[in-house]
Design brief:
Shape: globular
Number of helices: 13
Strand order of the largest sheet: 2-1-3-4-8-7-13-9
Largest sheet: 8 strands, mixed
Order of helices and strands: HHEHEHEHHEEEHEHEHEEEEHEHHH
Distance between the termini: 68 Å
Helix content: 25-40%
Radius of gyration: 21 Å
Bound molecules: thiamine diphosphate, iron/sulfur cluster, magnesium ion
Structural class: alpha/beta
Strand content: 15-25%
Amino acid sequence: MAESVLKTGGAAETAKENRIGLKALDYGGGKSTLCAGCGHDAVSNQIIRAFYEMSVEPHKVAKFSGIGCSSKTPAYFLGKAHGFNAVHGRMPAVATGAILANHQLVGVGVSGDGDTASIGLGQFMHMVRRNIPMLYIIENNGVYGLTKGQFSATADEGSKLKTGVINDLPPMDLCALAVQLGCGFVARGFAGDPKQMVNILKAAIAHNGLAVIDVISPCVTFNNHDGSTKGYTYAKEHDELLHQIGFVPSYEQIEIDYEPGELREVTMHDGSRILLKKLEEDYDPSDAVQALQRLHRANESGQMLTGLVYLRPEKKSFMELLNVVDEPLGGLPLERTRPPREALDKIMKELM
Ligand SMILES: Cc1ncc(C[n+]2csc(CCOP(=O)(O)OP(=O)(O)O)c2C)c(N)n1
Ligand code: SF4
Ligand SMILES: [Mg+2]
């Protein structure tokens, strides 16, 4: 069994304080009970690092999950945050209610491919449509890990279970689905690439809207065999990087070592900057049609496209659409939430 997920770069880094005087350890959680080597533990570690580096106060974070090995992981990071472990596939409804009650919290949902693409697909799609401002991380291993490895809706066509059963159904691409539904931040990462993942997570924290992050997170117990596109070896060999991602928070003015001319810079609503270094072609993350084409082509050729697939930082979040006040709705006194008697009387008169 794996122990605590928090990995730091030695004594000096463990002692280093962030902008609000907290250490990486302050962002840790309970001991992991997942299998040693599970991709999900690597993702928890990346979440810890991203929140520490972004200097988010842990008690201002609300963690949500459904059911699955992936959905257990909020217990292993940000132990001082709020948390709600919901029913299988129903996390979006719970998270929507909680963020509506207090939109000053930074919401982080962690789900699995079964939790999102199988039983929870309807809930996931409506959360994307509504653009609830939070991170939605899918730890995608192509199987129901917790219930011993049955195929999920993202399992590869033709893949084989340990029992010999073959999957005849085509996989669902959750990034393509999110782009299609108009999500303003869609990314794909790989649990074995912490550098890219931490930058994606930091950009997602700065984004004002739903950020969908599909992370290929291998299940070492049920789906890490040769041929599985969700295993460590395959993902390492077929990772097609769209671009290298750099992220500069609004409070930092440092310039990082990107060559001018090869760079695309996107400014987020809070003044943070995402720096995309092009690799092989002129990829524009604001072009939904190109994003869908690239995802489709990558799927056809067995490649795993990683990076920031689609970004529309200006898209209005659900809170902006509802025009809610700045204070958390859950903390407003009764006189500000209940219409006065005269207003009700007026409505009643109009109906008579
Ligand atoms: C309503 C309901 N149906 C089925 C189950 C059984 N069940 C628990 S976890 C799970 C699948 C989890 O798969 P996934 O979301 O991919 O998470 P992983 O374990 O792979 O991380 C299922 C089918 C359940 N707990 N509740
Ligand atoms: S069964 Fe798979 S997904 Fe679950 S903890 Fe083990 S390796 Fe991770
Ligand atoms: Mg799974």
